[in-house]
C-alpha cells in the first residue's frame, strides 16, 4: 500500500469518518515536523533553552507537572531522562502540585506539559513553581498559549490543530519532545558524545517512517481486537518500565471515548490484588514489546510473558502488543499486534498507536462519539 507523505493516510482510504482517525494517521507528519523544528543537524534546541542556561548548571532534579495524557507523556519522559541523562525526575499531577510541600529540593527545573497551553491546573502549577523560585520549561502545542508566555522558556510540539477531544498526535509529539530533551541533557551532562547523540537522533528520525508503514496493518488488527472484545466491560492495560506510561494512556483512551472501566497497571502488580478480576469477562491488553539489544528490556519482556501466561491459565482474554518477529508471545495471547523493532525508549511512540486505534474501533463498534465524548472538553480551563 502506498503512502502519500503530504497526507499520512494511506492513499486508498479516501476520506476519514472521524477526526480522531484522521489525526491518528497524521502522527508521522507531526513527529517529523516536531523533530525538524527542534533539531538543527545534531544540535538539539539550538536556542530555545538559552534562558535556562544558569539553571542547567545548578539544578538537582526535575519535576514534571501535567494532567491526563500529558502526564502519561511525562511518566515516559521521566524514564527517558533518568536512563539517558542520569537525572532524578519526579512526576506530579498538576492538580496536586500546588498542595505539595514547599520544602522540597530548592533547585529544581519544573517541566509543565499541556497540549493546549491553557489547562488551568497546569498553569496554576507553573505559577506556583515560579513563585517558589523554580525555573520552568513549558511543553505545548500552541506557541502563543498562556503556559508558553509565562514560562522561563518554552518547547513546542508541531502536531498541528487537533480537532478531536482525545489526544493522539499531540501525545506522540510530546513523547518526541521529551526524548529530545533527554538527549539534550545527556549531552550537556557529558553522558553522551556527539557521535552517540547522532545515532539516537537517527533512531528517532526512523520512527515516523516505521509508523507510516505500519499504520494500515495496525488499523486492521485493532479493528479485529475490538470485535474480539466488543462485549467486555472491564479492561486492564499492563506494561513495565517505560511501557507502563503507555498502558496508562491506552486505558485512558478507551475510558474517554467508550465509557468503560479501564485501568493501566505495572504488569508486575497484577497479582497484588487486581488478579481477582481475571475471568472470561475481563480483557487484558499487555505491552510486551522489547529491545533485544537491551538486557533489561529483555528481562522485563520475559516477566511480562509470565503474566500473560497467568492470565490465560485463569480464563482471561489477552491482547499483546509485541515486537515484530516475536513468536514466543503467540501462545499466551488471543491476538498479537506487532510493532517494528525499535530501541527501548522509542518503542512508546510506536506502541501507543495500536492502542489509540483499538480504543477508536471499540468505541465506534459500541456507538460512541469518538470526536466529542460526553462530559469532556479539549482543554480544562477551570480548576
Overview of the molecule:
With 383 residues, the chain is of the alpha/beta class. It folds into two domains: 3-204, Rossmann fold (3-Layer(aba) Sandwich); 214-365, Rossmann fold. It is 45% helix and 18% strand. The protein contains twelve helices and 14 strands. The strands form four sheets. Strands 6-5-7-8-9 form a five-stranded parallel beta sheet, with helices on both faces. α2 (27-38) packs antiparallel against α9 (194-228), α4 (68-85) packs parallel to α8 and α8 (169-188) packs antiparallel against α9 (194-228). The radius of gyration is 20 Å and the shape is globular. The model is unreliable at 1-14 (pLDDT under 50).
Chart the SSEs and their pairings.
Blueprint (H helix, E strand, L loop, with lengths): L2 E2 L2 E4 L8 H7 L1 H12 E2 L2 E2 L8 H6 L2 E6 L1 H18 L3 E5 H4 L10 E7 L5 H12 L3 E6 L5 H5 L2 E4 L12 H20 L5 H35 L5 E6 L2 H17 L2 E6 L15 E7 L6 H19 L3 E7 L11 E5 L7 H19 L18
Enumerate how many helices there are, as a single number. 12
Task: Provide the gyration radius in Å.
Answer: 20 Å
**Structural class estimated from helices and strands:** alpha/beta
Low-confidence stretches: 1-14
The CATH topology of the largest domain corresponds to Rossmann fold
- CATH architecture of the largest domain, by name, is 3-Layer(aba) Sandwich
Helix content percent band: 40-55%
Query: Quaternary status of these chains?
Result: single chain
Amino acid at each position: 500500500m502506498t503512502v502519500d507523505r503530504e497526507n499520512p493516510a494511506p492513499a486508498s482510504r479516501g476520506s476519514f469518518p472521524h477526526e480522531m482517525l484522521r489525526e491518528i494517521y497524521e502522527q508521522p507528519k507531526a513527529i517529523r515536523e516536531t523533530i525538524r523544528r527542534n533539531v538543527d543537524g545534531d544540535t538539539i534546541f539550538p536556542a530555545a533553552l538559552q534562558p535556562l542556561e544558569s539553571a542547567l548548571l545548578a539544578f538537582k532534579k526535575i519535576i514534571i507537572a501535567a494532567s491526563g495524557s500529558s502526564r502519561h507523556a511525562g511518566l515516559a519522559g521521566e524514564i527517558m531522562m533518568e536512563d539517558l541523562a542520569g537525572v532524578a525526575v519526579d512526576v506530579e499531577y498538576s492538580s496536586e502540585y500546588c498542595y505539595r510541600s514547599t520544602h522540597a529540593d530548592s533547585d529544581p527545573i519544573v517541566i509543565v506539559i499541556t497540549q493546549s497551553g491553557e489547562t488551568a491546573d497546569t498553569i496554576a502549577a507553573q505559577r506556583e513553581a515560579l513563585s517558589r523560585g523554580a525555573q520552568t520549561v513549558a511543553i505545548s502545542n500552541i506557541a502563543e498559549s498562556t503556559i508558553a508566555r509565562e514560562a522561563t522558556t518554552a518547547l513546542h510540539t508541531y502536531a498541528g490543530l487537533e480537532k478531536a477531544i482525545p489526544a493522539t498526535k499531540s501525545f506522540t509529539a510530546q513523547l518526541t519532545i521529551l526524548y529530545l530533551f533527554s538527549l539534550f541533557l545527556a549531552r550537556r551532562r557529558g553522558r553522551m558524545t556527539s557521535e552517540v547523540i547522532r545515532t539516537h537522533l537517527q533512531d528517532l528520525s526512523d520512527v515516523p517512517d516505521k509508523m507510516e508503514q505500519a499504520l494500515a496493518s495496525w488499523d486492521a488488527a485493532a479493528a479485529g481486537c475490538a470485535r474480539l472484545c466488543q462485549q467486555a466491560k472491564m479492561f486492564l492495560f499492563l506494561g513495565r518500565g517505560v511501557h507502563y506510561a503507555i498502558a496508562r494512556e491506552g486505558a485512558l483512551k478507551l475510558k474517554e471515548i467508550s465509557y468503560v472501566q479501564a485501568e493501566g497497571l505495572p504488569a508486575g502488580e497484577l497479582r497484588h490484588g487486581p488478579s481477582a478480576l481475571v475471568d472470561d469477562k475481563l480483557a487484558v491488553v499487555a505491552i510486551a514489546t522489547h529491545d533485544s539489544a537491551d538486557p533489561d528490556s529483555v528481562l522485563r519482556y520475559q516477566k511480562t510473558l509470565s503474566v500473560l501466561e497467568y492470565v490465560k491459565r485463569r480464563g482471561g482474554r489477552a491482547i499483546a502488543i509485541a515486537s515484530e518477529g516475536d513468536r514466543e508471545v503467540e501462545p499466551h495471547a488471543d491476538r498479537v499486534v506487532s510493532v517494528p523493532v525499535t530501541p527501548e525508549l522509542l518503542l512508546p511512540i510506536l506502541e501507543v498507536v495500536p492502542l489509540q486505534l483499538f480504543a477508536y474501533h471499540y468505541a465506534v463498534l459500541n456507538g460512541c462519539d469518538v470526536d466529542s465524548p460526553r462530559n469532556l472538553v479539549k482543554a480544562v480551563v477551570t480548576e
